[in-house]
Amino acid sequence: MKWLALDTSSAALSLALGQGSLGNIVPVASFHQHLSQQHGASLLPEIQRLLQSVDWQVEDVAGLIVGVGPGSYTGLRIGVSLAKMWGLSRQVPVYQVSSLALLAQQAQAQPDDLILPIVDARRLSAYCNLFAQAEGELTALGQDGHVDWQSFIPELTTRLRDMSYGDLILIGYQIEAFADFLHQEYPQLSFKLQSSAEYYPRADLAFTGIKIDPVTDIHTLNPNYVHATLAERQWADQHQRPVANEEENERYIEHFS
């Protein structure tokens, strides 16, 4: 079975082709490049070039895996929309994966380490989640979320006191400000920083050792924004309604007749 995996949640466009059964997919070809979030213009041409590089046709792709975020709103909409369109038009199975898990999977870690992937969401806020290795598979210890770093760290340190682990690894791109805050405000908390331009969600890492979820109804496939979009906040203000909370993941939609 031939697979296409993609992630458009960051400034990097990441694509991968693989072959094999689910859980044992062997990477065949990949494309990873920082494109300044110009994914709308680049996604389809790069997929076509990648397919041509291994002499595959569009019709050969029998399954898709898509990173659903959290991350760039625009980037996520582009990637998820393509996966939804492909699944509907080609009638192939689609699976979704956390973009934070794809980032955490790259950590240079020991089996007993905890991994905290961080995506800068500006103003010292971040998309993040805590991960651990369990029986050879990366496992999320919570929900992907959008956090205020200054409020999140006290909660994290309290949680870590009750856990047995090796090292805490912070991984991401341009996350030094988060590490500096942690070092200055909580010097007693030991951690390792892995920050590089190469650390972004990589689609090829969805092929093995990571949890992916089947999309049972392609119409329900949506990006995991984890917090309200600007349009939702403006709608809530205009109609004096509360913005949907993260746990319920609700969306207020106004219908015009």
Characterization of this structure:
One of its GO terms (molecular function) is peptidase activity. InterPro entries: ATPase_NBD, Gcp-like_dom, T6A_TsaB. It comes from Ignavigranum ruoffiae. The chain contains six helices and 13 strands. The C terminus is likely disordered. The strands form two sheets. Strands 6, 7, 8, 9, 10, 11 and 12 form a seven-stranded mixed sheet that branches. It has a six-stranded mixed sheet with strand order 3-2-1-4-5-13. It is about 30% helix and about 30% strand. It has about 260 residues and is an alpha/beta fold. It starts with a strand and ends in an 18-residue tail after the last helix. A hairpin with a 2-residue loop joins strand 2 and strand 3. The chain has two domains: about 120 residues, ATPase, nucleotide binding domain (Nucleotidyltransferase, domain 5), CATH 3.30.420.40; about 90 residues, Nucleotidyltransferase, domain 5.
- Indicate the overall shape: globular
What's the CATH architecture name of the largest domain? Answer: 2-Layer Sandwich
- Kindly name the structural category: alpha/beta
Distance between the termini: 45 Å
- Helix segment count? 6
Gyration radius, rounded: 19 Å
Q: Helicity range of the residues?
A: 25-40%
**Number of structurally distinct domains:** 2
Features:
13 strands; seven-stranded mixed sheet; alpha/beta; 257 residues; disordered C terminus; 28% helix; six-stranded mixed sheet; single chain; 28% strand; Nucleotidyltransferase, domain 5; 2 domains
